């Protein structure tokens, strides 16, 4: 969230000074994806999925560098963002699927992880079509649609705030024991 | 031109965004409601289980109290007067009596003490049958069945197919008590003409099956009775089997002529 705030502020500053701001957003895409991979590796207990996530980090980093070399750093890496969105949605769906089988005494929305996953999931789902279409639009038309992106960034921030204000005191230990 | 292009793109873009958002929210809502449902179900299960535990515990305590009362009654009503009478024979002006009367008193006192010893032995045997302790479940069941057969009212027999390795002592006692309770129930309620007990060994368990031709229980009846306040003996069977992680199944023979009670006792590694 802090990195996101820095990137956004720096992006606005670059826009204000009439310099291309895609460079910072491209780096943010890589950092965000790696961070999410590490986060999902922590919250998903399945070892196969953990290995796949590790492989995804390696794949995405290589892919990102190739994209940077093919397109210049001055251009926004639309494909990378789309891949990241698909990754976020797929992993979130898997996380929720796993939660169906976990017998916790506490409701799922009492967990911080639930809100963090929800924040990125809603953001990725909401901006998926936008980012897919935006690349095909001329730069002057794109600005009309940025409001959708801003809206989902606000929603994500609100959900992340809820996540940070959750108290996970004893709920991790409250598992059902059936005799 | 820009507006036209913008309009053409706007509709599918907005529809796609709304659609994706709706799907994401629907998924999250489904997970929340599904989990709430699961939690409620689990809580209900836990509550039912704790209720069942309470019923079993109550039955077990009641049975223990009844057993204590029976022993207390035996000691108070039988052993107490016997010993008091023996004391009377030995102390009442014995020194002043002639030798023949003295001998008669001592003989009477000896007889009464013998009776008291026999009574205490009987109480002790009812608590822990010596045949079970010394020779194992098979002999104890045979012994028990012989006593029932001796009364002549019913034909009772048993067949142990493979009982070379004995169960642990405490497990044997529990199984024996369960068999005793089942036989008592059959004798009291079933009005049957025969009882047949068989024992088989599985890979990880031992199966004991009781057949009889009287009025019996199905498993539904057993579950119903074990949840109600009646059927103390059945609850006792259930609580005893729970201790050894055993199971019991009541069923009627497909031919509808016999009732079966099957006890499944898991073996421990040292018993295999």
TrEMBL record, chain B:
It catalyses: ATP + protein L-histidine = ADP + protein N-phospho-L-histidine. Pfam families: HATPase_c (PF02518), HisKA_3 (PF07730). Its EC number is 2.7.13.3. The chain crosses the membrane at residues 12-33. Residues 172-256 form the Histidine kinase/HSP90-like ATPase domain. The keyword Lipid biosynthesis does not apply. GO terms for cellular component: membrane. Residues 67-132 form the Signal transduction histidine kinase subgroup 3 dimerisation and phosphoacceptor domain. GO terms for molecular function: ATP binding; phosphorelay sensor kinase activity; protein dimerization activity. The keyword Kinase applies. Keywords: ATP-binding, Kinase, Membrane, Nucleotide-binding, Phosphoprotein, Transferase, Transmembrane, Transmembrane helix, Two-component regulatory system. It comes from the Bacteria. This is histidine kinase.
